[in-house]
Write a structure and sequence with these properties.
Distance between the termini: 28 Å
Number of helices: 5
Largest sheet: none
Radius of gyration: 14 Å
Helix content: over 70%
Strand content: under 5%
Structural class: mainly alpha
Length: 116
């Protein structure tokens, strides 16, 4: 439910910035990368769209990006969300795929500089 709410909150802004087809491509590529990584390196199942949410969160930090600049919001989001997920992935023993969160955020960062 929370993933869907985040998608509803952030998605329209990203759709306006990157277009419907562009955002769909980014979501499909992110899902494919997460799925392949999970298939090769993990025995956990993936439930939900949290990787997509993390991609959208990192993308949203660069909505008003200017050429040649790295936005402060991107750095702060990386510190708060991405570092937290790396920490949780190493420390917590739960059924959450923290790796998919991390990969989603990395895909979002890549799409900021190389949109599809």
């Amino acid at each position: 439910m929370n993933n869907f709410l985040y998608i509803l909150l952030i998605g329209p802004m990203m759709e306006e910035k990157f277009g419907t087809i562009g955002l769909l491509k980014m979501m499909l590529v992110t899902s494919l990368v997460i799925g392949l990584f999970n298939t090769i390196f993990s025995k956990k199942g993936i439930v939900g769209a949290s990787g997509i949410v993390y991609m959208l969160i990192t993308l949203s930090s660069a909505v008003n990006i200017k050429s040649g600049e790295i936005p402060l919001t991107l750095i702060l989001i990386c510190l708060f969300y991405v570092v937290n997920e790396v920490f949780n992935g190493l420390v917590k023993k739960d059924n959450v795929s923290h790796v998919s969160h991390f990969i989603g955020a990395i895909c979002g960062i890549i799409f900021i500089f190389y949109p599809i």
